[in-house]
Amino acid sequence: MLRKIYSVFFSLVMPFFLVVGCNGNKTATSSTTAENSEKPKVSVPKFDRDSAFIFVAQQLAFGPRVPNTAAHNACKTWLVNKLKGFGAEVIEQNFQARAYTGTMLDGTNVIAQYKPENTRRIVLSTHWDSRHITDSPLAKGAKQAVMGADDGASGVGILLEIAQVLQATPVDIGVDLVFFDAEDYGDGGPNGKSESWCLGSQYWARNLHYKGGIKPEYGILLDMVGASAPRFGIEEYSNYYAKDVVDKVWDLAFSMGYSNIFVEERVGGITDDHVFVNQLARIPMVDIINRPADTQTGFVAHWHTPEDTLDKIDRITLKSVGQLLLAVVYREYAGTL
Q1: Count of beta carbons in the 10 Å neighbourhood of residue 296
Q2: How high is the pLDDT of residue 213?
Q3: Are 90 and 79 in contact, with CB atoms under 8 Å apart?
Q4: Is residue 252 exposed (0-12), middle (13-18) or buried (19+ Cβ within 10 Å)?
Q5: What is the pLDDT along the chain (337 residues), one digit of tens a residue?
Q6: Which of 230, 272, 228 is nearest to 127 (CA)?
Q7: Which 3-state string (H, E, C) describes the chain?
Q8: Cα atoms found within 13 Å of the Cα of residue 197, Cβ hemisphere only
Q9: Whether 154 contacts 222, CB under 8 Å
């Protein structure tokens, strides 16, 4: 997921939007009190980090999940079956997209829906493909496909465990788990266009699967969420398009004791799946992505290298991110977020 990394000054040159809130100062009434007392009382289930880790390992057993390969097709079948087994209504959104290399890619966005009839919804997403070439300046040896333990499989592992929890402990709110394909088949050259990346999310954003005018209130994207001691800063596009969601997620992380990894620091804008969801689908979506400080690439050392393997995955990080997302879902349902 090489991206054009924009300066933190990005937000200063964007048009200024004044958002006027619709909630004025009102005196509390007995009806308001009654409404609050009727809010469902729910506890947030525990996130099983070992289960999520196993899901990461199972993906890697297929090899690199590069579109148009046998490993990619096998992993898709496994992913679809897992989600169906966890009680989701699954949509396989097939598409074709021409890569920057000229290759026509056969891709599939895998969409798992819980309570698809519910008009109140949120979407949690990640990409499930892996990079077709090791092109980091830190990569050594011959060019090869990337295993993608962190860059791809970590987010999938977390969302699969969330799917398992949603089956065991249902909530009356719509949740969509969207696994984007062909995210990482972009042009990493100096003149590469941002539209060459995130082909699956571009297709999804232009061809939303929702019916009857239903649309999620907001979304959260996971990318590279498995390494030890991560630094999840506030990404500029997220802050520009979905500041309310940023505030909600990072404030919740702080309240849960995760302020050491969900840092209140701005990081440069990145062309990731959330950009196209924001721009094309007009669904506010934030990107939770690991951006270590003071690195040569702006990402973890194993990014786009042969070293993006299972040993880079930290169960503690999987637990922190997964527990946060469960808190978002269950507290959203309870009306306490």
Answers
A1: 9
A2: 84
A3: no
A4: middle
A5: 444 343 333 443 444 333 333 333 333 333 444 444 567 788 999 999 999 999 999 999 999 999 999 999 999 999 999 999 999 999 999 999 999 999 999 999 999 999 999 999 999 999 999 999 999 999 998 899 999 999 999 999 999 999 999 999 999 999 999 999 999 999 999 899 999 999 999 999 999 999 888 999 999 999 999 999 999 999 999 999 999 999 999 999 999 999 999 999 999 999 999 999 999 999 999 999 999 998 889 999 999 999 999 999 999 999 999 999 999 999 999 999 9
A6: 272
A7: CCCCCCCCCHHHHCCCCCCCCCCCCCCCCHHHHHHHHCCCCCCCCCCCHHHHHHHHHHHHCCCCCCCCCHHHHHHHHHHHHHHHHCCCEEEEEEEEEECCCCCEEEEEEEEEEECCCCCCEEEEEEECCCCCCCCCCCCCCCCCCCCCHHHHHHHHHHHHHHHHHHHHCCCCCEEEEEEECCCCCCCCCCCCCHHHCCHHHHHHHHCCCCCCCCCCCEEEEEECCCCCCCCEEEEHHHHHHCHHHHHHHHHHHHHCCCCCCEEEEEECCCCCHHHHHHHHHCCCEEEEECCCCCCCCCCCCCCCCCCCCHHHCCHHHHHHHHHHHHHHHHHHHHCCC
A8: 22
A9: yes
| The predicted structure's pLDDT at residue 183 | 98
CB 144 within 8 A of CB 306: yes
Tokens of 205: 């954003």
Give the torsion sign (CA, 25, 28, 31, 37). Answer: positive
Rounded to 5 degrees, φ, ψ at 316 are -65, -40
Cβ atoms within 10 Å of 315's Cβ, excluding its own: 15
Task: Check: CB of residue 192 under 8 Å from CB of residue 115.
Answer: no
Tokens of 264: 């209140």
d(CA 166, CA 161): 9
